[in-house]
Write a sequence for this structure.
C-alpha cells in the first residue's frame, strides 16, 4: 500500500506551492466565474470526494507504516478505556483523566510513552493536511469539560452545555415535538480521539477518510456546544443524507434561525451533515 506519511506531507504536500488548500477553498468560494480548468477540476474532484466520503481517495493521508503498531495499540486501549469507564463517563473524559484511569486499572493498562507521544502529535498536527479545513475550537490537549457547565438533556442520557445549547435544544423540542430526538451532545477530547482514530483504524489508517465524517480531536464543535439531532425511528440513518428528507429536518430548515455546521457542498472537507446543529460561532 502506498502510505503517505504525515512528515512527508508536511514537507512535500500541497503547502509546497505556497498556497494551502484552505486558502484555495476560500478563494474558490469568492470566485464565481472564469476559473482556470485546474480549479474546475479541483471542485469537481472535491465534491465527488465528499459525496463518496467513506471511500479512499488518491490524495488521502495515512498513518505511517513505522507508527502503525503504536496507532493500533492506542485504538485498542481507547476501546478498553471506554468499555471500562462506561460510555456516559467516557463522553466527558479529559486527556489527563483518561491517562490516569488507564494506569489505575489493569483491564486497560497505562498508555505507553510512544502512544501518548503519537496522540500529542496527532492532536497538534494541522488537520488541513488531511484535507479538513474547519477551525479548531479546543486548542489544548488537556482541555476539560467542567461538570458545572453541562447537564443531562430532559428525558435523555445525553449531556449538553447549559445556556444556549440547552435552550436551543429545548426550543426545537417544543416546536417540533416528540419526533425530534437528541443523538449526540457534549464530547471531550478522549471521545473524539476514539471516534476519529477508530474510523481511521477501520479504514487502513486513512486519516483523511476519517476526517471527512469525524472531526480530528480538538476540531469537534461538540467540545464547545454543538449537538446532533435526529428523527425517532430512523436509527443509524439519522447520520446519513436520508435525514435531510425527514419531516424533522424539513421543519427545522423552515424555521430559518437554525444553521448547520457542515452544510451540503461545504468547502471544509466534511461531508454534508444535516443533523449537526451549529450552536456556537
Ligand atoms: Zn455532530
Amino acid at each position: 500500500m502506498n502510505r503517505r506519511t504525515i512528515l512527508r506531507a508536511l514537507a512535500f504536500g500541497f503547502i509546497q506551492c505556497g498556497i494551502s488548500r484552505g486558502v484555495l477553498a476560500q478563494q474558490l468560494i469568492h470566485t464565481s466565474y472564469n476559473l482556470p480548468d485546474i480549479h474546475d477540476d479541483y471542485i469537481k474532484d472535491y465534491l465527488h470526494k465528499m459525496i463518496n466520503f467513506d471511500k479512499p481517495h488518491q490524495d488521502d493521508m495515512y498513518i505511517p507504516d513505522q507508527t502503525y503498531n503504536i496507532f493500533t495499540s492506542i485504538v485498542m486501549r481507547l476501546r478498553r478505556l471506554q468499555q471500562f469507564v462506561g460510555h456516559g463517563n467516557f463522553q466527558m473524559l479529559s486527556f489527563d483523566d483518561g491517562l490516569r484511569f488507564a494506569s489505575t486499572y489493569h483491564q486497560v493498562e497505562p498508555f505507553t510513552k510512544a502512544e501518548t507521544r503519537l496522540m500529542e502529535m496527532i492532536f497538534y498536527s494541522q488537520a488541513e493536511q488531511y484535507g479538513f479545513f474547519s477551525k479548531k475550537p479546543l486548542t489544548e490537549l488537556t482541555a476539560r469539560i467542567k461538570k458545572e457547565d453541562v447537564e443531562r438533556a430532559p428525558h435523555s442520557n445525553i449531556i449538553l452545555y447549559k445556556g444556549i445549547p440547552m435552550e436551543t435544544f429545548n426550543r426545537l423540542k417544543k416546536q417540533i415535538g416528540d419526533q425530534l430526538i437528541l443523538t449526540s451532545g457534549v464530547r471531550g477530547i478522549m471521545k473524539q480521539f476514539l471516534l476519529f482514530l477508530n474510523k481511521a483504524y477501520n479504514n487502513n489508517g486513512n486519516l483523511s477518510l476519517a476526517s471527512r465524517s469525524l472531526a480530528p480531536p480538538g476540531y469537534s464543535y461538540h467540545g464547545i456546544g454543538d449537538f446532533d439531532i435526529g428523527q425517532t425511528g430512523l436509527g443509524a440513518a439519522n447520520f446519513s443524507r436520508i435525514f435531510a428528507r425527514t419531516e424533522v429536518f424539513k421543519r427545522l430548515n423552515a424555521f430559518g434561525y437554525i444553521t448547520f455546521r457542515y452544510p451540503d457542498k461545504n468547502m471544509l472537507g466534511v461531508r454534508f451533515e444535516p443533523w449537526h446543529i451549529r450552536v456556537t460561532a
Remarks:
- Residues 184, 222, 228, 276 surround zinc ion (CB under 6 Å).
- The chain has one domain: 6-137+147-277.
- Confidence is low (pLDDT under 50) at residues 1-36.
- Residues 6-137+147-277 form a domain with the Muramoyl-pentapeptide Carboxypeptidase; domain 2 fold (CATH 3.30.1380.10).
